[in-house]
Amino acid sequence: MSDSPAGVADLLGVLAYAELTAFLRLAEDATRHAPSLGDRAALGDLAAAEYAHFRLLHDRLASLEVDPEEAMAPFVGPLDDWHTQTAPRDWLEALVKAYIGTGIALDFYREAAARVDAATRQLVEEVLADEGRSQFAVERVLAALKEDPTQGGRLALWARRMVGETLSQGRQVAAARPELAKLLVDAAGEDITRMFTRLTEAHGRRMAAMGLTPGP
């Protein structure tokens, strides 16, 4: 890995575990919360896409002679904690988490990927591709809000909680792996405020797409 900046193994490791847990959680949400067989199948398709991304990252780590399990290990605690703290109680909360919560987290990794080698950056962009998650979640939440507008308040609060829990997760990951944190800081350069502005704006667009109010 001498041709890559420090932290590449960490970036691939955290993404690999994030994709693996996304696969498992989406499959669980499909079973527990999907209101119809069609919704269950659609969420299952998204879960399958996440697993395919995990395999790409796993194989890339192996090609770099990095043990995938060792690369993922430092992130098991922080990501598992995040999923525990953000376990959805129903179908709509599961959709908000899949779109807004996961979107915030992946934005951070996309920023970090700006400082890695071209091949790794291309792989990261591939595994962070939306794969239809946005359209699936947005359509169903908008339909639910049209049927019952009173759901908007609690879902907006839930989405804002996603922000707080994701920032907490990010601090845990940074504390555990300083080299990964350095990638993020290097990507931001002198103006880390601008990076957070981009992240905030992206979050605002997701909230608006779902018909939710960003709030403070």
Summed over residues and divided by their number, the pLDDT gives a mean of 85
Q: Which class do the helix and strand fractions yield?
A: mainly alpha
Largest pleated sheet: none
Q: Write down the Rg.
A: 17 Å
- Counting DSSP H or I runs of 4 or more residues, the number of helices is 10
- The helix content, as a percent range, equals over 70%
Shape: globular
Note the gap between the termini.
42 Å
Number of strands: 0
Quick recap:
The chain is mainly alpha-helical and about 220 residues long. It has helices spanning about 10-35, 35-65, 70, 75-85, 90-110, 120-125, 135-145, 150-175, 180-190, 190-210.
Structure, explained:
Helix content is 79%, strand content 0%. With 216 residues, the protein is an all-alpha fold. Helix 5 runs parallel beside helix 8 (151-176). The longest helix is centred in the N-terminal third of the chain and has 27 residues, at 37-63. The mean pLDDT is 85.
